[in-house]
Design brief:
The complex is a heterodimer of chains A (about 230) and B (about 400).
Chain A (H helix, E strand, L loop, with lengths): L2 E12 L2 E13 L4 E5 L6 H8 L7 E6 L2 E2 L5 H11 E4 L11 H12 L3 H14 L15 H13 L5 E5 L7 H16 L3 E6 L2 H4 L4 E6 L2 E7 L8
Parallel strand pairs in A: 3-8, 3-9, 6-7, 7-8
Antiparallel strand pairs in A: 1-2, 1-4, 4-5, 9-10
Chain B lengths: L2 H14 L1 H39 L3 E6 L4 H9 L7 H10 L3 E16 L2 E10 L3 H4 L4 E4 L4 H5 L4 E4 L1 H7 L9 E4 L2 E9 L20 E5 H7 L12 E6 L5 H15 L6 E4 L1 H44 L1 H9 L4 H37 L8 H28 L2 H4 L4
Parallel strand pairs in B: 3-8, 5-7
Antiparallel strand pairs in B: 1-9, 1-10, 2-3, 2-6, 2-9, 4-7, 5-8, 6-7
The chains are: A alpha/beta (about 230), B alpha+beta (about 400).
Amino acid sequence: MLIEIKELKKNYLLGDVEIPVIHGINLNIEKNEYVAIMGPSGSGKSTLMNILGCLDTVSSGHYYFNEMDVSTLDDDALSIMRNKEIGFIFQNFNLLPRLNAIQNVELPLVYAGTPSTERKEKALRALNRVGLSDRVNHKPAELSGGQRQRVAIARALVTNPGILLADEPTGALDSKTGVEIMRLFEELHTEGNTIILITHEQEIANYAHRNIYLKDGMIHSDKINSDKTIIF
Amino acid sequence: MQYGENVRLALQGLTDHKFRSFLTMLGIIFGVASVITMLSIGEGAKREAIAKYQDLGVNNIIVREKTLSDEELEEVRAKFSQGLSIQDAQVISEIVPGVERIASQAEKNTDVRYNDKSVKSTIVGISPAFQSMMNYKVQKGYFINDKHYNERLKVCVLGAGVAASFFKGEDPIGKLVKIDDQWLEVIGVLESKSLFTETVGELAARDLNTDVFVPLSLFLNRFTRENQLSSEIQQITVQLKNSDKLVEASKIIHEILRRHHFNNDDYSIVIPFELLKQEEKERQIYNFLLGAIAAISLLVGGIGIMNIMLATVMERTREIGIRRSVGARKIDIMSQFVTESVVISITGGIIGVLTGIVLSLIVTLFTDINTFIKPYSVFLAFSFSVIVGVSFGYLPAKNAANLKPVDSIRYE
């Protein structure tokens, strides 16, 4: 089991009042699964993603990653987890505007302490994988939306993480470019990557193999996607 | 994350916002430059003072005739004081303990002539001990010695200024100059002395380069006094074996002279070393003030850095979130921002050091204030600027590191 979540609860403090956002979720995700987590806004899917991505901590319950209890880790250990095991892909790309494509991709390796020549080599390989080997020295502002998202995907891939965590990855893209990105995800999945997709669009969720619906901080449904969209 | 990576990042940040970085640095630049300039002015003044008093001899006590008006002089003579005399010098050397050497000196302002040229000069009759006691150096020939003194030879040693106005390109040694009705042979020329611009006690400011030295024996024997009431000699310089008995000895000298001059207050006693110590003490307060002003400006520079860094952290919340999301630990963010402020302060420090050196040179060139830059003051100012960078960068960097990744990644 890659991810095992037991009785996960998360509350937010609003003034003096604790607002429960996640009410106790149990969830298992196997290696090489392609999961879409869906739900309307306020359903707790962003919170769940933050916890899965080690950006946030649980209020109660347990989160096991590769059988390790992540919910007990301190800030430094969580940083190392993010660095080694999580590849984030955001709706708004979250690239550093002053760095060019390859420098952006190298960033996780910088914090991993990888020597510079090895870093370049790995970053080039990742950029090559997403089809951007001719754009390595471009700054984000000089790239199209789809290209930016590819740089972000290359950055997520470069450390060879346990999961790719994509938060509305096509949300800022036109539909044609969105389809291209979804095709890339499909390929990455075929290559053995575990992908968790957060979305509120059924259309996007249809690309995944398993759909989890969250509602009011609980799992409303969890089913294998029988009529998944195939991209030719 | 490697240290070099942080420095590279910080430098890139600097060059990306050149004007802003420059403005941020300005405080440090002014701070460091003022520390260096202030310290160099203080050090220059100190060296000048030391040089000045060294000329007067640090182990010396100088007894000098007071400058009196004719009426006062008449009054003093009427009360039986004959003014300073060779006899006074003798008594001092016999009674005062710890005297190494003693030199008497008679003076007279008159013209010196060579061929058709004439120069206003102070003729100084001296005993041979004088030269070594006062650190006078001869640039040509030699100084008056025992033989000249004992045999009252008609010789003289010229101050550099006198020699320069008489002998352009000519060798002055062996030439005859005329003082009053006496022809004297030039046996030496002194090295040029810096202008004695300040009055030290009764030692009035004057240009020592226009002095002409003759044996005191000759002076007393052959030259008329400047005025009938003038004392026999104008100055007695007493050199002690060491400087810690100066005050004690000066009290004894005072006592002797008071009796010999029948309680007439017609002489003054100057102890250069004591004046030096006193001046040093005064200057210490002054230096402290200068240093404090400079330190405050450096502090203000540091606050400037802190201000900008705090704003930068706010502005770069998103960047911090991104870095955290790809695995930067708190310490990585912290060191990134501290490095940035240190790079700002070091760069400012370097520019400030250069500015300070240039300012000191300008001060020396365009005013009569001497400056001297000690390597220690450069080191002090520079390390101070680094400390400012670290300490004022710490708080903003801590703020940056403590941002929650989950909040900062979504910061708009």
